[in-house]
Amino acid sequence: MAEQQQDARLTVQHVYLKDASFEAPNITKLDQKGGEPQIDVSLSQRNEEAGEGRHHVVLSVTVTSKQGENTAFLCEVQFGGFFHLDGFSEQHLPYVLNVLCPDVLYPYCRSQIGSLVSAGGFFLPPLQPVNFEAIFRQRLEDARQQQPDNQEQ
């Protein structure tokens, strides 16, 4: 199996901006002395097979900035990528699709969000790197913990 994984290759075939949006719905309600805004970052991802070792992965990153109860801005960016995966076992495919592919797409999302927020007249501290492996492992653990509950029902 280790020999098979040594021959495995992930090839990035195409990366593209799928969707981007920015809104500042409450700009007139913001207090210039309001202090530090609350920043929330959320991630989601979709994967689909595109035929013969080719996979389409879309990573969505949403950043919401609030000042008190008012939303200062909401920015969402989706980047898609086509990846050719060769030589990975069925056991390793979920890891590649949920960790390695988003690792490729996240810097594109981060850059686009920075540009949109800046163009909207706001300052956003740099978005921190994301540990997709930790997220993937947590999802596996959550699914494992819920499995006994599902079997009893």
Describe, in plain words, how this protein is organized in 3D.
There is one protein chain. This protein is of the alpha+beta class and 153 residues long. It has one domain (2-146): Bacterial Protein-export protein SecB (Roll), CATH 3.10.420. It has 3 helices and 4 strands. It has a 4-stranded antiparallel β-sheet. Helix 2 (93-119) packs across helix 3 (132-152).
Proportion in β-strands: 35-45%
Along the chain, the helix and strand elements come as HEEEEHH
CATH architecture descriptor: Roll
Count of beta strands: 4
Share in helix: 25-40%
How much is the average pLDDT?
Answer: 90
How many distinct helices? Answer: 3
- End-to-end Cα distance: 37 Å
Strand order of the largest sheet: 1-4-3-2
Features:
4 strands; 153 residues; Bacterial Protein-export protein SecB; 3 helices; alpha+beta; 39% strand; four-stranded antiparallel beta sheet
